[in-house]
Amino acid sequence: MTEARGSAGPNGATHARHTPGAPSWVSLMVHGPAATQEFYGALFGWEFGPGPQQLGPSVRAALDGRAVAGIGRLPPDRHLPVAWTPYLASNDVDLTAESVRLCGGTVGVGPLDAAEAGRMAICSDPAGAVFGIWQSSARSGTAVTGVPGTPAWNELLTFESANVAKFYETVFGYDEQPSDPAGPDRVVLRVDGRPVAGIRGLGTALPRDRGPHWMTYFEVADTDEALERVAGLGGQVLEAAHDTPHGRVATVADPEGARFALIRPPR
């Protein structure tokens, strides 16, 4: 990963979360919402309340009453990968969705209104990675970050970073930090000089069963202890905990196979 904790800052400052291009929300569509709520409730301490119903039954996960993420039910006839999806902020989701199309991406759902929460669309970039666009109301979006159980970073895992980075830069106006030609194929996307997301090119190491996809990192107090809880709750450890310059990180999957990362930031 690159610079975790840079996407919104402590307590999810509203101006940061709603800045165009900044990740402002994450959601997960699953086949069994009740079991999924039990898993994440036990892992992160989330509580659940009703969410927007435009895409079917959904709930909003919260910590101490402050929104963190969304979980919805996949239609029974839709056999789609179960995956966490980041939503990137926009001041005009219709205009951004049109830019996605013009730049070689696909708009799969919307744009449509999500009740009082805002307006959204679900898209894929030219390499096939799925992401959302979110035009939020004044009070919506992830309401808290920087504490255990909240999104800390989002990173795109793809074949190579250069061309797909140009897509996101054109659509969302990011400032790009180019990857080091002599080092790993990584790009940091920035808004007003602030890191908001990363792109990592894996080449042939990209899992064939997943293809290009976004990975959400959730903050935890203790990565190793969280891994034990994941396993005990029926999840799977995909990459053991290891230390990085940005904290202690591990990659896991929930019981339905949705992949995500755990990170304990440096102390």
Automatic annotation (TrEMBL):
This is VOC domain-containing protein. It comes from Streptomyces zinciresistens K42. Residues 1-20 are annotated as: Disordered. It holds the Pfam family Glyoxalase_6. PROSITE patterns: VOC. Residues 150-265 form the VOC domain. SUPFAM superfamilies: Glyoxalase/Bleomycin resistance protein/Dihydroxybiphenyl dioxygenase.
